[in-house]
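Side project, low priority. Logging it here so it doesn't get lost.
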Amino acid sequence: MDRLTAMKVFSEVAATGSFTATADRLEMSRAMVTRYVAEMEQWLQARLLQRTTRSVTLTDAGEIALRRCQQMLAISQDLEEESATTAQGELRGQLRLTCSVSFAFAQLGAAIADFLALHPQLKIDLDASEGSVNLVEKRIDLAIRISAEPDPLLVGRPLAQCASALVASPAYLADHGTPQEPSDLARHRCLSYANFGRSVWELSRGARTERVAVSARFSANEATTLMRAALSGGGIALQPTYLVSPLLRSGELRAVLPEWSLPVMTIHALYPSRRHLSPAVRALLDFLVLRFAQGPW
């Protein structure tokens, strides 16, 4: 049995704490996952996992084995990536990316499809999530993150500016009125992004800056959820323009206080190290820089 695959399966079981979840993630049967783990334990002559009806946890031997397996899997991936070209010079292999759900939905999904059309031998696995991901542990090649200050432990390359806008549906504004000044927001239903400006929104106009404490009856950690709530007449939402610009153009949403500006953040492409950056990652980075440099959304 392929020991490299066995190490990958064992590492996934350790990460998920579940044979079933590992089988789903790796697209293999649960019986095959069990077989690979048994192969690992037979190879190392040690029990690696404690199994109960409710959980799967690592033994002391399993903790040691997991660290070594992760190191060997990382070396294997580096080897594949460093030679990730075909005889004809085409890029091949698999890249692992992560970004927020809203950016994947609005921008990155289409960008990846266009990039893969140029490189048919490549595969891309995208983890669209809002939580922080350890790029090394999860073997992520590239993370797209929106922030004012990216993680200093990672190498960052700016892709574009991320502007925001206050938006609401025409129906909501017809029923509740349109704010004329930032202070008017305090009397409105506001839809708040949990990770940015949850209870205080900062707006600027020239040299004047207003900080408004908003009443957020509905907050969420994911922008597309708030966008749907705004479309349904739920209130005024602070949204990234990369997500809502098409809806503003169509009239499904309307800009609130458009003469006032909101803080601008930067969209970064982050990766663990400049060393051994594969040709495929470099090609994707260059592609994204050019694509998102074409102007604001």
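Brief comment: The radius of gyration is 23 Å.
Revisit when time allows.
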